[in-house]
Design goal:
heterodimer, A: alpha+beta, Ubiquitin-like (UB roll), 2 domains, 6 helices, 5 strands, globular, B: alpha+beta, Enolase-like, domain 1, 3 domains, 5-stranded antiparallel sheet, 4-stranded antiparallel sheet
Chain lengths: 171, 290
């Protein structure tokens, strides 16, 4: 069955079995292996991608359901030659160890910060509760996400130089 | 595990969807948000021959708030409910309960109709539908039906839905501004299924005595329950700590939870009592959830 959609800005056209999940379609048909598949039943969050801007679990969505939508994967949130502010913040705060959960953390955090740049630590924790990390203990991940808020237009007193934050914005 | 093989259809009108279901005579499943069905497929707990995707059906994504109550189309997602400011007064109890439904990513796809049809005994919204006397509007080969939530849930993952019926709306009766309510849930991690949860509400007569009390229990039986014994302990009374203690005791005595991997029966029973107690205290304080 055919499905046509956009992935990271490019049009794709795949012919897949209905039972193929969007996660497996991205990895095996489109070779976008940044999206990780952990539990395959919607618990771990490693496979999180953006569908029409919303963070969703790509293991709980069929590829054929993506027909007509716009998908952004972790590859679409990165560059070959430099780190985005969110990635740089993860590096600065040691917010990853083995890295398996990181694509899901990045896509989820990007959706959160895009929609709610002024979110507080409690909100970050609540949103990330849908993503499992077996290495870090989460504290460093929460710190990294909070620290990246300035790049998304965070507007509270903590932002010393908001103009600079916006100049650096490269999402 | 990878999903079992199935055929897939994505009809663009309701009658076509009903016809597709009817033609398979029970071997087809509706796909709404897929947040419960796809895990069921992955575990091979379900292996239907056909999935009928509802995403192109028109008119199922509306939220209508009026003096007659709140009507939610079956394809309304959790994130749609949380984003609708009208529901803060239109149905604060529903809103408070939806905030406990699953995690961020799930709430972006999961639907209210899907949750009602799935009928997990530990899910919030079947319990809220029951406790609030909601009605479930369906369409099938035999025509439209309006089913009371009290009749709809008949066992774990079992409902009154016929194989060719589709939920189109969930209708909640109007919510008076003065109504007292509380919702409390305990889960090991916010967003996980409830180990026990309680939804309570009551109105007050001119003297401040409770009337029309409703007490709903979630996660302590094979389906959501109302607890008439606990409601009787509240009706006609000024709600104070002694009355709350009586309602708590009545609630504990009324449920029959089973021991499972999450908790013993005795623990679940005690937990439900505590949830009822806390929900009544928050109802009295007018704070709803806190």
């Amino acid at each position: 069955m055919r499905a046509q959609f956009k992935v990271n800005g490019a049009d794709v056209d795949v012919d897949v079995e209905p039972r193929l999940t969007l996660a497996d379609c991205l990895r095996h048909h489109l070779r976008l292996t940044g999206t990780h598949v952990g539990c395959e039943h919607g618990v771990c969050g490693a496979c999180t991608v953006l569908v029409d801007g919303a963070a969703v679990r790509s293991c709980l969505m069929l590829a054929v359901q993506a027909d007509g939508v716009e998908v952004v994967t972790v590859e679409g949130l990165s560059h070959d030659d430099h780190l985005t502010p969110l990635q740089a913040s993860f590096r600065k705060h040691h917010a990853l160890q083995c890295g398996f959960c990181t694509p899901g953390m990045i896509t989820t955090a990007h959706a959160l910060l895009t929609n709610e740049p002024n979110c507080d630590a409690e909100r970050v924790r609540e949103v990330l509760s849908g993503n499992l990390c077996r290495c870090t203990g989460y504290i460093s991940i929460v710190e990294a996400v909070l620290d990246a808020r300035s790049a998304y237009g965070h507007e509270t007193e903590g932002t010393k130089d908001p103009a600079k934050g916006r100049d650096d914005r490269d999402l | 595990m990878k999903l079992p093989p199935f055929e897939y259809a994505c009809p663009s009108d309701l009658s076509e969807a009903v016809a597709l279901l009817a033609a398979r005579n029970g071997d087809a499943k509706l796909l709404a948000g897929g947040q419960s069905l796809v895990p069921m497929l992955a575990f091979r707990l379900a292996a239907p021959a056909l999935l009928v995707d509802l995403r192109k059906l028109p008119g199922l994504r509306k939220i209508d708030v009026s003096r007659n109550g709140v009507v939610l189309g079956s394809m309304v997602r959790w994130c749609d409910i949380l984003a609708d400011a009208r529901l803060r007064t239109g149905h604060p109890l529903l809103l408070a309960a939806v905030a406990h439904v699953a995690h961020y990513q799930i709430r972006n796809r999961g639907t209210i109709g899907g949750s009602i049809a799935h009928a997990d005994p530990a899910a919030e919204i079947p319990g809220i539908a029951l406790a609030c006397e909601a009605e479930i509007a369906t369409v099938g080969t035999a025509g439209p039906r309006l089913i009371k939530a009290a009749d709809f849930f008949i066992g774990p993952l079992m409902t009154l839905l016929e194989p060719d019926e589709i939920i189109v709306e969930i209708r909640f009766p109007a919510w008076p501004a003065q109504r007292r309510w509380g919702f409390q849930e305990f889960a090991r991690r916010r967003g996980d299924f409830a180990m026990a949860a309680a939804a309570v509400w009551f109105d007050q007569d001119e003297g401040g005595r409770a009337r029309n009390a409703h007490v709903g229990a979630i996660g302590v039986g094979d389906r959501p329950q109302r607890l008439p014994e606990a409601e009787a302990a509240l009706n006609g009374r000024m709600i104070d700590d002694a009355v709350i203690a009586q309602a708590e005791a009545a609630a504990c005595a009324a449920v029959d939870p089973q021991t499972d991997i999450q908790a013993s029966a005795a623990y679940r029973r005690a937990l439900l009592g505590t949830m009822v107690e806390r929900a009544l205290k928050s109802a009295c304080s007018g704070m709803g959830e806190s």
